[in-house]
Amino acid sequence: SEVDFHNIPFGRVFSDHLLVVDYKDGAWQKPEIKPFGDMMLSPACSALHYGQSIFEGMKANLDANTGEVLLFRPEENAKRLNRSATRMGMPTLPVETFVEGLKTLLQLDRKWVPDVEDTALYIRPFMFANDNFIGVKKSSNYRFIIFTCPVGAYYSKPVSVWIEKDFKRAFPGGTGAAKAAGNYAATLYPASLVNEKGYDQILWTDGHESKYVEEAGTMNVFFVIDGKVVTPDLDGTILEGITRESVLQLMKDSGIEVEERRLSVDEILAAHKANKLQEVSGVGTAATITHIASLGYEDVHYDLPPVSERTISNKIRKQLVDIKLGIAEDKHNWIVRV
User: Distance (Å, rounded) from C-alpha 243 to C-alpha 198?
Assistant: First the structure.
């Protein structure tokens, strides 16, 4: 009752409870729901030293008609968490533990789901190594936690993006497709440099040639070039975005031509020069579908067409939001009601 849901800073206001499941003696223990609060950790906690830590991002919304709490494709988040766990040498968590534990948590903290436009209850599942041991090896103990926080829009306006060719996010054979904490840690310094240039986000390029675009710091990317949608394909260095896959499905449902393939910086800039680069957007759980207003590359700034002219991304964003709010028909059974 003390929270102003019309003015929520992203990621700083937390709900009352969290779900905790510990892994020890080769098995997951009984899930518990506890009051949200600080944890006691040993200074020798292995995650702090060797980076075995993964996470997910999700949102819960209220049905615009019934007031029920709605989840968007939670089983897909559970499956992706397990793919990340496998890549990082961590135990997989039963999908039913993830989904049923989350539903129980949301039933308890239902009043934290805001009903203000462009708000949601953000959900952060994560897992980390919890051995009290200094030695480079897989941990024997892990902790899985879900906590939640009411949030407003992650981006309140279209963003500007810098195409990065020097620093790298991922390489083939690495952890780029895992939602691992270390992937994000390595991006923070170059992100601060592009912020100083006046850009909000980085658009990463491939590790070998710095020639092909991959993903932005918090979202997958889509381009509309001469009426056709192009997005980088999944080659092991790009996060398999659940919003990305959902957007692709909605585009196909609408008869929009989509290509998943390698996309070079040269092709993007040539399309801009020919006035054929019509839309650029980022998609993700936090971002939903965020318009990219401009690109920067090698100290040249490229403005993009206004949001009002972006027929494809505006159409798909409305479809996606309406499904999440229970307004539109859920043809693919993406919504789970709590």
Answer: 27
Angle, vertex CA 267, rays to CA 244 and CA 165, nearest 5: 75
Helix axes 242-253, 74-87, angle to 10 degrees: 130
- Amino acid sitting at position 338: V
pLDDT tens figures, 268-320: 999 999 999 999 999 999 889 999 999 999 999 999 999 999 999 999 999 99
- Residue given tokens 């092991």 in the structure block: 236
Distance CA 177, CA 171 (A): 10
Q: Which burial class, exposed, middle or buried, applies to 290 when counting CB atoms under 10 A from its CB (0-12, 13-18, 19+)?
A: buried
The answer to whether 177 and 237 have CB atoms below 8 angstroms apart is yes
- The answer to pTM > 0.85 is yes
**Residues 76-93 pLDDT 10s:** 999 999 999 999 999 999
Per residue, what are the HEC states of the chain?
Answer: CCCCCCCCCCCCCCCCEEEEEEEECCEECCCEEEECCCCCCCCCEHHHHHCCEEECCEEEEECCCCCCEEEECHHHHHHHHHHHHHHCCCCCCCHHHHHHHHHHHHHHCHHHCCCCCCCEEEEEEEEEECCECCCCCCCCCEEEEEEEEEECCCCCCCEEEEEECCCCCCCCCCCCCCCEHHHHHCCHHHHHHHHHCCCCEEEEECCCCCCEEEEECCEEEEEEECCEEEECCCCCCCCCCHHHHHHHHHHHHCCCCEEECCCEHHHHHHHHHCCCEEEEEEEECCCEEEEEEEEEECCEEEECCCHHHCHHHHHHHHHHHHHHCCCCCCCCCCEEEC
Give the C-alpha separation, 54 to 269, whole Å.
35
Under 8 Å between Cβ of 186 and 207: no
In terms of C-beta distances under 8 Å and separation of at least 24 residues, what long-range contacts does 180-184 make, across chains too? Answer: 180/51, 180/53, 180/54, 180/84, 180/87, 180/88, 181/51, 181/53, 181/54, 181/55, 181/128, 182/51, 182/53
Provide the pLDDT confidence category of residue 29 given band limits of 50, 70 and 90: very high
**Radius of gyration of the CA atoms of the chain, in A:** 20
